[in-house]
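Worked problem 6 (solution included).
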Amino acid sequence: MDIISLPIETDNEEIDGTYRLVIASIQRAKHLSEGALPKKASKANKITTLAIEEVASGKVNLLKGKAAVLARAESKKNTTKRMMDEAQQKETMPEDVSELEKDLKVYLSEKGDVNKKKSIEDIFGDS
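Solution. The predicted structure is:
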């Protein structure tokens, strides 16, 4: 079986070589796999093919040089902050769970009282 490799032709001036196309497509495919919405209608069944089409058509913003370095540093900073926030949420989680347990116990005790027959005065009586 012969494998045919077709060169991808693009008019996008930001793509100055195959390497940049591949790297940008990999990053776009990661975003798509994490739930990003496609920026282009396509008949592609695979995320990787869709990513290549989007990058080649210029639908995806490409950063180069200092802008790319700054964006990567900001991304790392945001990732670290998100991880710290998640760790802090996990520490406070047991308190939240205990509150839920208390509410559930109150609900179940009230539901147990429902089995007893109540009069209309008990339900709608003046408090």
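Discussion: The CA atoms of residues 14 and 62 lie 7 Å apart.
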